[in-house]
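ok so dumb question maybe but i'm new to this and my supervisor (M.) told me to 'just get the structure for CubicO group peptidase, beta-lactamase class C family' and walked off. so i did the thing. is this what she meant?? sequence i used:
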Amino acid sequence: MNRFRKGFILMLSLTFAASLILPQQSSSAEKPAEVSIEEELLKESTPGFLPSQANPSEWAKAWERAGMKRSVLKEGKPQSVQMVPEYINDIDDVVQTGIEADMYPGAVVLAVKDGTIVKHEAYGDAVKYEDTEKLLPEEDRIATETDTIYDMASITKIFTSIAGLQTVEKDLVDLDEPVVTYLPEFNGDGTGDITVRHLMTHTSGLPAWIPIYTYDTLEERLQAVYEAEPTVEPGTAYVYSDLNMILLGKIVERVSGSTLDDFIDTHITGPLGMDDTMFNPGEGLKHRIAATEPQPYLDRGMVWGSVHDENAYSLNGVAGHAGIFSTAKDLAVLSQAILNGGFYDQARILNEETITEMLSNQITTESHLAQGLGWNLSRDWFMGELSSPVAAGHTGFTGTSFVIDPNTETIVIFLTNRVHPTRDAGSINPWRVNVVNKVVEAMEKHPSRIRNNN
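this is what came out, is it supposed to look like this??
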């Protein structure tokens, strides 16, 4: 049994026929959030359930088929990959309705089919407001461009998870070893049984969030994380927690001897040529960065060019749960590398067996949701009609999301700065879903698909 499969319980075939609607969490831009601003919007709508869980062999075949082509992204027309252009063009209207409804000031959409970029479009403004209400003069606003850099928020967790699995491949970390093996200072009551796998599947039982930014020093903030105690028994429930990924980032740093930002640059973004992906972007890039919101409680004006998440900001902008900035094109490169089985152009970031384990459902009785190692699986509330037991992706609180589907070899990326000028506008999940669904419709309405289905 390899180091990935140790202790792994395979998912049984299940049919879920329940829906659960929870109230949306929001908080004022004039005061700190009482829960994590990075807590995913599972409270917004009916969460994804698995109508027919694929068995592991079927799942592996889907990713093996995708990985065989090893595509390098190129631009092309929808017709070249058997998609109907009309529905791809309809994405423009979908995104514009969100801007007109003041759900977000601007956005970038990028869609890929079979390695071909069939849509890469920018909309609205990246910087539009002076404060929470006052619009900037027209001449001072910055229009969104296709290479606008966004605060990825919780999509940072994907990078941290890949980094963590790279340390597993190097035999520096065992997924089923207790966290305390690597971080002896992680010594709160009840933490001794929490494993690295628990962190990556959000089954550690640790609280979703604690306000570490309220502590005076960096040392005190980290100590608060190390002393956090589980609220439920580890391994018994799914509790989406920023603390999990902060700890995983610290494990990567401890075993590698490198800072998390340097490790990700050296082993992920650098090899993939993702030059617009980074923590703490320099001042010279500010004109390309989408603004977020003011945080007067931290003596910050309009947050623009530095991380939006308060806890990540208090950790000097580098944390396992938030802090990465990126573009749609760079995120597409990472996504295509995953579809390719961990390989892109001349770079390999993960082995194929690692990709398979990373994107296999890791939990059963802990939740009705499916969860890979750091990745969300089968989440219809943002994956729309691409949602399935093999679809993978993530969202970010600032208004970012992406989904990868190996069955159709499709990537859909939707980046917004929905928290500009405040986080109070509400859920953008309907727009996330509608953008994805237009891509699916473009595939499903193509004559070749219709013929094959008859």
